[in-house]
Design a protein that fits this description.
Shape: globular
Radius of gyration: 23 Å
Structural class: alpha/beta
Order of helices and strands: EHEEHEEHEHEHEHEHEHEEHHHHHHH
CATH class of the largest domain: Alpha Beta
CATH architecture of the largest domain: 3-Layer(aba) Sandwich
Number of strands: 12
InterPro entries: Homeodomain-like_sf, HTH_AraC, HTH_AraC-typ_CS, LacI/GalR-like_sensor, Peripla_BP_I, XylR_PBP1
Distance between the termini: 29 Å
Pfam family, one: Peripla_BP_3
CATH topology of the largest domain: Rossmann fold
Keywords: DNA-binding, Transcription, Transcription regulation
Strand order of the largest sheet: 7-6-8-9-10-12
Number of helices: 15
Largest sheet: 6 strands, mixed
GO molecular function: DNA-binding transcription factor activity; transcription cis-regulatory region binding
Protein name: Xylose operon regulatory protein
Length: 388
């Protein structure tokens, strides 16, 4: 009988992202195990478990959060994979989120609200390279369209040196000075919740004066926020699954990858009240966009939108294209595909049923459109992004 691998999971349970990683690891070992799992519930900043020093296991999956942790893992000589990426120079293979499509998705969502002022609220530069990339990609997307982007990263004084009240006051001052209305991306849900609280302190109305979108889609933080917070689901379960697969390879003699591995794109946006507004001065376009978002999955056609306005078809098309950067038909398709992706990843519905629920006239047409836009078939998408 082959030996059962002993694997340590140094992944916290205090964040939804980390819990998603654990779900993915669990699914992998159920499919390809069994593994003997060494695991204790803990927080990200908790000290290393005492048993790790001198432990003689076969593999480690870790959210490496300190040099002491990294050095202990490297010194053990045990095959290990990092699923945090905060310390890219420690010599451990890393697998994580591709932040470029995450930032692009956030920008496109805010831009589609009709916003033309943008800002990013993150953490001090150098604290986490992934969050730095998230900021840089967002600013790049904004500037490519000719707009400017304000940033607040707490760079002058590290945030941990301040109390919650002092942090909130700093963010509130920054928020008051931003041009309004403004679309704000935050680096993660923790910061997003802070921004929404600071908006209340600063008297900035959400979503009318500031629309806020965050990352990780932690349902507790997002629904505890006032108003509830829109967030991007980066599908941590898939990252946990692929990290477990990478570790399995290392434990069976594979060489570690020479480069970091980024998985993407994200699963999609979980829309909530913090971005539930339209800032479009052109009333005909605003009405058209609102109608599309409310009815795209009901099988509407371009002619249905045009019939609701007194504007000529060519004029309405031109104005929509100018404000959204895409045609009426493209906007309908975008909404339908977003709904289809959600159904593929979260339900047991057949592809044919999903095509119908997303507003496509025929399953075959849906499959063609999905593959054209997503680069994979609907069935393959489900396999990759399913969070079981």
């Amino acid at each position: 009988m082959p030996k059962t691998p002993h694997v340590a999971l140094l992944i916290e349970t205090s964040r939804e992202y980390a819990r998603g990683l654990l779900r993915g690891v669990a699914r992998y070992q159920q499919e390809h195990g069994p593994w003997s799992i060494y695991f204790e519930p803990h927080g990200l900043d908790d000290p290393l478990p005492e048993w790790l020093v001198g432990w003689k296991g076969d593999g480690i999956l870790a959210r490496v959060n300190s040099r002491d942790m990294a050095e202990t893992i490297v010194a053990s000589g045990i095959p290990a994979v990092d699923v945090r990426g905060a310390l890219p120079d420690v010599g451990l293979p890393f697998i994580g989120v591709d932040n470029e499509p995450v930032s692009k998705l956030a920008y496109e969502h805010l831009k589609s609200m009709g916003l033309r002022n943008f800002a990013f609220c993150g953490t001090p530069r150098g604290e986490n390279p992934n969050q730095d990339r998230r900021c840089d990609y967002f600013v790049s997307e904004v500037e490519k369209d000719g707009y400017s982007c304000g940033t607040w990263l707490g760079e002058q004084q590290r945030l941990r040196a301040h109390s919650w009240e002092e942090q909130q006051q700093q963010i509130a001052v920054w928020l008051r000075d931003l041009p309004k209305p403004v679309g704000i991306m935050t680096c993660h849900d923790d910061r997003g919740q802070q921004v929404l609280d600071a908006c209340r302190r600063a008297g900035v109305s959400v979503p009318d004066s500031a629309a806020v979108i965050s990352v990780d889609n932690d349902p507790h933080l997002c629904n505890l926020s006032t108003p509830t917070m829109t967030s991007i689901d980066v599908n941590p379960s898939r990252i946990g699954y692929e990290a477990a697969a990478m570790l399995h390879g290392l434990m069976t003699g594979n060489q570690p990858p020479r480069r970091v591995t980024f998985l993407g794109p994200p699963r999609g946006i979980a829309p909530r009240r913090s971005t539930d507004a339209l800032h479009i001065e052109d009333q005909d376009v605003a009405e058209a966009v609102r109608y599309i978002r409310e009815n795209a999955t009901s099988g509407i056609r371009v002619s249905d939108i045009i019939a609701r306005t007194k504007t000529s078809p060519s004029t309405l098309e031109r104005r929509v294209k100018k404000l959204l950067g895409r045609t009426i038909k493209s906007e309908i398709t975008r909404i339908r595909l977003a709904h289809a992706r959600l159904l593929l990843s979260e339900t047991e519905f057949s592809v044919a049923k999903i095509a119908d629920k997303a507003g496509f006239s025929e399953p075959k047409y849906f499959c063609e459109v999905f593959r054209k836009h997503e680069g994979v078939t609907a069935t393959e998408y489900r396999r990759r992004f399913r969070d079981e």
